[in-house]
Here is the input.
Amino acid sequence: MACGRLLGGWVRWAAENDMSDLSDFSKTTPQLETVDAESIPTGIAPGSSSAKMKFGDVAPRKKNIPKGLWTKCGKCAELIYDKDLEENLKTCQSCGYHFPIAARSRLASLVNDKSFKEMDAGMRSVDVLKFTGAASYPSKLERYQKSTGENDAVITGVCRMGSHRIALGIMDFSFLGGSMGSVVGEKITRLIEVGTKKKLPVIIISTSGGARMYEGMFSLMQMAKTCGALAYHSEACLPYISVLTHPTTAGVMASYASVGDLIVAEPGAMIGFAGPRVIKDTTQAELPPGFQTAEFLLDHGMIDAIVTRNEMRDLLVNYLDYLSAGLPKPKPKLAPSKKSS
Here is the structure.
C-alpha cells in the first residue's frame, strides 16, 4: 500500500510540472571539437594504437651521422673520429681493438721513408681450372683488383727498417680474404730466395683465410714451395720473422706463417687451421675460452710474443738487432773513382 501511494504521488507531480525539456535533452548531441585533417600525421590511421601517445612522449629524432667521419669500435662500441683512427694505425685508443688495415698503410708504418722497392708487382693470377659458378674466378679477380688497387693478395719487396735492409712481404685480407693462390705463393717464394741470395732477413706479415679454392691443387702446392724456400734460407743461417695478424688460418698458417725463427702476433688475432665450429663438431667437445686467439697461443707456447701495431716497428727493429748480430754487414757501395787524365 505504501508503494502504491508513493507511485500515485509521483504521477500527480509529473502531471503538474512540464517534462517537455526531457525529450529535448534526449535528442541533444555533445559538441565535439573539429580537427583539421592536415594536423593528422601522414601514414598513421586515426584511432590506431600507433597514433596514441602518452603525455610527454616525444618522437625520437634520428641522428644523421655523415659517412666517412666516425667509426664504431667493434669491441667497446666507442665512436672514433676517422682521422684519429688513421693516425693511430687503425687501433682503438679506448680498448686497444685492432681494426683491419690495408697492406699499403701497414707498409708505410713499418719501413723507412721511400726505401721500399717492390718486386713482381705486375704478376697476376689466371683461371687455370676454368671453374664455373655464380661468378667466375676472372670476374672476382677483376672486382678485387679494382677495389684494392692491387694485383693480388700480397705485396713483396726489399726495404730498410731502421738500420736493417730486409726482404718484406705483407698480405692483404681485403683481396679475396688474403687467400694464397699461385701468384701469392710464387711472390713469397721469390721474396725468400732474394733474401737468401742477398743475405737479408725475411719478414712476412700474414693475414689470410688459407689456400685459394679457385685454384685447387695449384694453391695447395704453394705450401710446400714456400716452406722449401724457407728451409734454404734457414740453412744459410738467416733470420725469418713471422708476424700473424687477424685472421691467419688454414693453408697459410699450416705453411710459412708457422715456421718463423720468431713468431709474433697482434692482440686478439684469430690464429689456427680449421675454424672453431668445425673443431667443435669434429671433436664433440667444448672448446676452452679464448681458443685460437693470440693470447691463448702465447699461453700455450705456440707464439713468442704479442705486439701492438703501434709498437710493431720498434720491436721488429730490436728483434732484427738481436737476430742479425752475427751476420756479415753489407759492404757500402763506393762511388767510382775518376781517372786522372
User: Anything to note?
Assistant: The CA atoms of residues 96 and 267 lie 8 Å apart. The first strand starts at residue 70 and ends at 72.
